[in-house]
Amino acid sequence: MDLAEEEKQGRRGSRSSIDEPLLPPQYEERPSRLPSPHGQSRNAGDDVERMLNPKRKRSGNGRFWTILFVALMGPALLGAFAIFFSNSYYGDGWISNRPHADSGSFPTDIGFAGPTITGKEAGLLLTAPAPPVQTAQPPLVAPSVGGKKHPFNIMQSWGHLSPWYSVDSHGLPKTDSLEPKGCKIKGLHWLQRHGARYPTTDTVEGPMGFAIRLKNSNWTASGDLAFLNDWSYKLGGEILTPFGRQQLFNLGVSARVKYGFLLEQFEDRLPVFRTESQDRMLKSAQNFAAGFFGIPVEDQYNLAVMIESPNYNCTLSPYAMCPNDNGKLGAIAGAKTQAWENVFLAKAIKRLQPLIGDYSLTTRDVKDMMEMCAYETVSVGYSAFCGLFTEDEWKGFQYRNDIWWWHTSGFGSPVARAEGLGYAQELISRLTHSRLTEFNSTTNSTWHDDIHFPLNDPIYVDFTHDTVFHDVVTVLNFTGFAASGTPPTDHIPKHRSYISSKISPFATNMQFQILSCPSEAYDIDEAERSRKSDEYIRVILNDAAVPLTGIRGCPENDDGKCPMATFVSSIQEIIGSIDFEKECLGRGAEIDYSAETTTGAPVYLS
Questions:
Q1: Residue-wise pLDDT tens digits, 141-164
Q2: How many CB atoms lie within 10 A of CB 321?
Q3: What is the pLDDT of residue 25?
Q4: H or E segment to which residue 191 belongs
Q5: Pair 262, 458: CB distance under 8 Å
Q6: Which domain, by its residues, includes 564?
Q7: Which of 107, 145, 396, 433 sits in a 20 to 30 Å window from 40, CA-based?
C-alpha cells in the first residue's frame, strides 16, 4: 500500500496515549515494528526464507497477542473514537444504516430491451487528429489562485495527492499518445494507480492527526481561520472516494475508446487484469473494468486478485517484502522534507498564527492543513483550507512531495531498483512471451501459469500504488526524470526534472505501447530489412511520451520509440545487475542510508 503518502515513519514521535482517539472502529491498530516509509511493519527477526515463500504458514503467536489486545483494550479504543467522531459522519452515516437492496421486488432483467446492436471497436489513437486532454476535474471545486490574469491550478501542485492530468511533455514535446506515423499499435501494457482515496489512519501526522490535535486543545479562530470554529473532520480512511471511483471508471472508458480495437485479437480467452486485495485496489480494478467493458462485467474479463500483506510476494506492492525499506530510510527522507518545510512554510505560520492565538501552530500543523485541502477536495468536493495558502506556498508543497518521493522510492532511494525488479521481470516475460523460471524477487510463482499470467495477450492491465510508479521509473532507467539530480532542501531549482504530480498523482497511468513500424526499415536494403525486426516499444505516462534514451541502445527520436530487441536486451542487463537478496533482504551487506545515490541502487557500509 502507498502509506508513504503520510510519512508515517522517520519523523514520528511516540504514539498517542490510550485515552486519545485513535482509529475508527472498522480499522485495526497497526503495531509499529521496524516500520518502513511505506507504512509496512515487520519483525526484525523474520526469517527471510519465509519472506520469499508465500505458501509458508505464519506463526500463531502474533494472532494470539492481537486477540488478547483487542479483548482488553477494545472498549477503551471504541470509546475514544466515539468522542472524536461525535461531530463527524462516522457511526451515523447513510452507509452504516442503509437497508439491503430488494432485487426480488425490483427486477432489472424484464425483457423488452429493444435493439442491442454493438458497433465496431473504437481506435481513437489511430484516427483522431489530436488526443483528448485531461485538465478539468469535475465535480471538484478548487479556489482560484492568482486571479484571471495569472490563473494557477493548485490541484496540479499536490504531488501524489493531485488528481491525474494530461502532462504537456516529459521531454518529447513534438509527439503525443497517438499512433506514431508509419507505425501500428499492436499491443498494450497498462499500469494503473488507484483513484483518489481518503487519507491513511495516522493519528500523529496528516489530516487525522491535525484534527485530533485541534480536538484536544482549547482555541478560538478568527479571520480566514474562523471556519474552524464550526469545522469537524468528516473524512473516511484509505478507501476510494466517490471521485476516485469516477476517475477509474472514466479511465476505463478512455482506454476502451483509445485501444478497444485490440480486443479483436482475443479469440478463445478473456483478458486478464491484475490487482491486489486491498479494498481501494480491488475497487479501482472493478471500476476501471466497468468503464472499459460496460456492466455487467463478470463474463467479459478475469481479475487476478493477489494478497497484499507482509509475507506475501506481490510485484504490485513490493515494499512489504523488502526489509531494507524501513524506518532508517524514512528518517533520512523525513529529515530532508522537514528541512524544506521549515523554509517554505515560515511565512504561512507567521501569517496564520495570529488567527488562532490560543493554539501554537507548528510546521507539521501547517503542512497537514495543506494535505487537508487536497484530501477534503477529492473527498467532499471542496475545502476551505485551500484558500489559506499562496501560489508560492503551493509550489513549495509540490516540491516538498518531490523531495519525499525522490528519496523513498525514486532515484535517490537505495531500494527503488530492487523493489521495481519484480515488475520489470514480469514486463520482460510478457514482452518476450517466455515464462519466468526463477523467482528471486517479489514475483510470486503461485500466479505464474497460463491461466493467471498469460504471455500472448494484446492487452494487459495491472493496478498498483504510487510507490511502484516511482520504483518502475527508476528500475527501467527513465533517466530524464533524474536529469536535475538530487533536489536541494533550501530552494526550488529553476529547472527540475522530478515532479511527483507528473509521475504518481491519483489515478496515474503508464502505457507501454507495442508498435509495428515497418517504415523504420525503408532506408536499408531488402536483405537487411528481412533481418531487422519492425517491433518497437514506447512509454506514455499521463498522456505524454517518456524519453527512453537512458536505456542502453535506445536512440533519440521525436516519438520516444525504442526497438523492442534493444529495449528487452537492455532491461535484461539491468535485471541481471540487481541483487535482490542483498539490496532488499540485507544479506551480506548493510546499506549506508546516509550516502547519496542517484541511481536507485544502494551504497553499502564498508
A1: 987 776 677 788 999 999 999 999
A2: 28
A3: 40
A4: strand 184-193
A5: yes
A6: 158-196+266-323+406-583
A7: 396
Tell me, what's the pLDDT at 11? 38
> Tens digits of per-residue pLDDT, 337-347?
999 999 999 99
Site of grid cell 503495531:
31
Contact 501, 466 (CB under 8 A): no
Any domain includes 89: no
Nearby residues of 519 by Cβ (< 8 Å), 6 or more positions away = 181, 182, 183
Query: What region does 562 belong to: left with phi over 0, alpha with psi -120 to 50, or beta?
Result: beta
The pLDDT tens digits of the residues spanning 173-197 come to 999 999 999 999 999 999 999 999 9
575 inside domain:
yes
Location of C-alpha cell 527503488: 416
Q: Does residue 143 form part of some domain?
A: no
pLDDT of residue 237 exceeding 80, the answer is yes
Name the grid cell of 189.
Answer: 501494457
Collapse the DSSP code of 186 into the 3-class scheme (helix H, G, I; strand E, B; otherwise coil) and give the result: strand
Model pLDDT for residues 245-280, shown as the tens digit of each residue = 999 999 999 999 999 999 999 989 999 999 999 999
**Any idea which residue has 500466479 for its cell?**
447
Query: What CA–CA distance (Å, rounded) separates 215 from 523?
Result: 72
b/e 484-504 (16+ beta carbons within 10 angstroms → b): eebbebeebeeeebbbbbbbb
> How far is the C-alpha of 194 from the C-alpha of 441, rounded, in Å?
23
- Whether the upstream peptide bond of residue 139 has omega within 30° of 0, thus cis, is yes
* 510 beta partners: 191, 541
Beta strands 535-541 and 509-516, pairing class: antiparallel
Amino acid at 598: T
Q: How far is CA 506 from the centre of its chain?
A: 7
pLDDT band at 129 (very low <50, low <70, confident <90, very high): very high
Q: In this structure, is residue 515 part of a structural domain?
A: yes
Helix, strand, coil shares of the chain, percent, nearest 5, are 40, 10, 50
CA dist., res. 259 & res. 262, Å (int): 6
Task: Give the β-pairing of 459-464 and 302-306.
Answer: unpaired
pTM of the model as a whole: 0.86
Instruction: Mention every residue, 6+ apart, whose C-beta is less than 8 A from residue 148.
Output: none
Question: Residue 460's domain is classified under what CATH number?
Answer: 3.40.50.1240
Quick one: which of 510, 463, 22 has its CA closest to 282?
Answer: 463
pLDDT in tens, 345-393: 999 999 999 999 899 999 999 999 999 999 999 999 999 999 999 999 9
Grid look-up 537487411 returns: 528
Among the listed residues 216, 196, 198, 161, the one whose alpha carbon sits nearest the alpha carbon of residue 22: 216
